[in-house]
Design a protein that fits this description.
Helices cover 71% and strands 11% of the residues. The protein is built from five helices and three strands.
């Protein structure tokens, strides 16, 4: 992830939320709080507390950024969003709903390549139903 993407992720999730999500993206599998904590604390001068990491993971789960699965006496987490752009789109749609989608489509009309890509996606999706 480049610096600009990292900045957007940090703005959306806060520094620790962005760091935890990045750890899960890099792992590309479900991780427990303890596993995430070990990765995050590696190289830190002041290690984070287990409860701090657990709290942030729980909040990200409630925002539907992470999926939480019971594992043993705790939980394992995996990323639901693929990148910062998906997170941004979800937030815009959550905050502005249909109006945001309408404005997006209006913008697509002005960009031929984007309009073409959108039309392909819509056709592919309608073929699946």
């Amino acid at each position: 992830m480049n610096g600009r993407e990292a900045d957007k992720l940090t703005k959306a999730l806060g520094p620790l939320g962005a760091e935890l999500l990045t750890v899960l993206w890099e792992a590309d599998r479900r991780l427990t709080v303890r596993q995430i904590l070990e990765k995050v604390n590696c190289g830190r001068s002041e290690p984070l507390a287990y409860t701090t990491v657990m709290t942030v993971l729980n909040r990200l789960s409630k925002r539907n950024v992470l999926h939480r699965t019971a594992q043993g006496r705790g939980f394992a987490y995996e990323a639901i969003v693929q990148d910062a752009a998906e997170l941004a789109v979800r937030d815009v749609i959550r905050d502005h709903g249909v109006s945001a989608v309408a404005h997006f489509i209006d913008q697509c009309q002005a960009e031929p390549q984007l309009r073409s890509r959108l039309m392909k996606l819509v056709r592919t999706d309608s073929d699946d139903t």
